[in-house]
Amino acid sequence: MAFLLGMFVDKPEFVTVLNDKQVEAGSNVILRCEVNTTQVTVMWKKNSQKLDCVEGKHKIRLIGKLCCLEIQRVEDVDEGSYTVEVSNKLGSVSCSAMVTVAINKWREIPRNSAEMVRSLRSYQVCDGVSELRFLLHGPIGAGKSSVINTIKTIFENRPFVNCLAGESGESVTLYYEKFTIGSERSGRLPFAFYDVMGLEEGQTRGAHTDDIIKALKGHIPNNYKFQAYPITEDNRYYITAPTLNDRIHCLVSVLPADKITLMENAVIEKMKCIRKAATELGIPQMVFMTRVDKVCKMTKDDMSKVYQSKKIKEKMQECSNRLGVPMNCIFPVETYHEQNQLNEHINCLILDALTQIVFWANDYAEKCSGNQNRVE
Questions:
Q1: pLDDT band at 372 (very low <50, low <70, confident <90, very high)
Q2: How many helices (H) and strands (E) does the chain have?
Q3: Average pLDDT taken over every residue of the chain
């Protein structure tokens, strides 16, 4: 404590700090905190830069010991980290809060997971195939296995971890393994998911693009163990004459929202190569963008706002630009990787994406079923 201008002055300390705010576009938001003394100078920053106050937009007030910043008619450009620095001759202190702006919703999420589950359980695949087959591919740690586990969890109505998922930075998928949905007790659905090794930079690490392309064509059998080199036609497990039932009916690229920016170009090029092969085969393709809770606090707190998040939309656009996929083919999803209780919003997001790939895969199978030409 010091004596200043005839008054006792304390070194500034916070009594209360700024709190994160989530606000709808067009609304007003107030950030406030309380300090222990009135003898202070206050400065506000946005994203570590001094806040450029705009008349009619920002109101800064010091009411006794209360420091306030009001932002009127919030827009998406107002989203960011706000910091207040409080100082006097004895020292300074600062605290920060994140303002997240929910922009106008650009896509709707079905609200009833039970209805989607019933619809998928009763879905009839086209004649000519016994089940629709989906192949998931992407970089290590993208969440391919977690996607499968989440879908199985929803239909079993309990946590399901039969498909091993890892966070170690190394692929835990060693086999070309088939995972079905449902059970003998609850009824098995006519959908099958195939998991492959994660893609890595370099020719000798991770999944080989040639193996994945051969899997698309139906040349690789279930439970085939991936080798250090791609499978060849003289391999005893190689399916030389695959039918429509052996082929993949939809390719699902899995990308982690929080790592898209950091992904190596070599991995992206491998994914593009696989997508090009799928396009030449006429196989429909979709992207599941996982780990959306890692890039947006608003979405993490409330998954129903995923299509109101500026950050999620930016990540979807980045995914579209890097991989060359239309925005309407990209579905942000969340998986059960930390939770042990089912969540309706998580269920609705992934069931919506699942419904779309089922429709697209069935359209492809129906188109091919009239002509059972073998794929060379």
A1: low
A2: 7, 18
A3: 90
Q: Are 156 and 210 in contact (CB under 8 A)?
A: no
Task: Please tell me whether residue 355 adopts helix, strand or coil conformation.
Answer: helix
Q: What are phi and psi of 158, to 5 degrees?
A: -165, 155
CB 319 within 8 A of CB 330: yes
CA-derived radius of gyration, the chain: 26
Using CA atoms, how far apart are residues 29 and 70, in angstroms rounded to an integer? 6
Rounded to an integer, the average pLDDT of 62-84 is 95
Q: In this predicted model, what pLDDT tens digit does every residue of 289-302 receive, in sequence order?
A: 999 999 998 898 88
CA distances, 284 to each of 43, 281, 357, 367 (Å):
54, 9, 8, 12
Whether residue 288 contacts residue 294, with contact meaning beta carbons closer than 8 Å, is answered with no
What is the token pair recorded at 193? 């998911």
pLDDT, residue 76, reads: 86
Whole-number pLDDT of residue 373 = 46
Tokens at 287, concatenated: 């992207």
Half-sphere CA count of 109, side-chain side, radius 13 A: 22
Q: How far is CA 88 from CA 35, 70, 78, 123, 353, in A?
A: 12, 23, 29, 69, 55
CB 252 within 8 A of CB 134: yes
Query: What is the distance between the alpha carbons of residues 293 and 204, in angstroms, rounded to a whole number?
Result: 32
The residue count for the chain:
376
On the CB side of 134, CA atoms within 13 Å amount to 30
**Inter-residue contact 211 to 270 (CB < 8 Å):** no
What does the alpha-carbon distance between residue 360 and residue 250 come to, in Å, rounded to a whole number?
7
- Residue 312's SS3 state is helix
Q: Are 221 and 239 in contact (CB under 8 A)?
A: yes
Global pTM value: 0.84
Alpha helices in the chain (DSSP H): 113-121, 144-156, 209-217, 265-281, 297-301, 310-323, 344-369
Q: Among positive and negative, which fits the CA dihedral 101, 344, 318, 140?
A: positive
Average pLDDT over residues 215-223: 96
